[in-house]
Amino acid sequence: MTVTGPRRGRPGHNLDSLLDVAVAAFNERGYEATSMEELAARLGVTKSAIYHHVPSKVELLRLAVDRALDALFAVTREPGATTGPAIDRLEHVVRGSVRVLAAELPFVTLLLRLRGNSAVEDTALQRRREFDRIVTDLVRAAEAEGDVRPDVDPAVTSRLLFGAVNSLTEWYRPGGGLTPDDLADALVATTFTGLRARPGAGR
């Protein structure tokens, strides 16, 4: 059974609010250590009320990580990521990924903690690797166009860029004074300075 959207249930609780509570619990206690009983207690409902929305805890995990991944892949399909010089498309994807992280912080945090302990986690990790390949291809294209320094392997550059993006989950808190755009500006300013080819280098 696949759940594709909120369904009518107990007043005050829908699939979105259930996901918010479940993801908070998964991040605090770990997915395996979180029971449906605990989720029901946090929501103040019975387990049967949860099963009205989803068939299992696994489905909650799948919906949660897909929410983060779908948002990241949506960035790669935006016009800024598909047209223009590769270096500009790369910057667009980095900026968009920062915005996704800020908007979906608990969901991205959960995604980054997956270790492949189930079929759902394996599928999510495969999608993460696909996203990594898109970014690596952009770095490679920017290098071919002469805009990225050629002395660093594109896969390494990609990992370094998104290592910086992903590290934001450790300290960034929405509403703390930095807007997502401020955060993206700062990250791009610090990382792209070293990434860009020096004028005349390698040409």
UniProtKB/TrEMBL annotation:
Residues 12-72 form the HTH tetR-type domain. Residues 35-54 bind DNA. Keywords: DNA-binding, Transcription, Transcription regulation. SUPFAM superfamilies: Homeodomain-like, Tetracyclin repressor-like, C-terminal domain. It comes from the Bacteria. The keyword DNA-binding applies. InterPro entries: Homeodomain-like_sf, HTH-type_TetR-like_transc_reg, HTH_TetR, KstR2_TetR_C, Tet_transcr_reg_TetR-rel_C_sf. PROSITE patterns: HTH_TETR_2 (PS50977). The keyword Ligase does not apply. This is TetR/AcrR family transcriptional regulator.
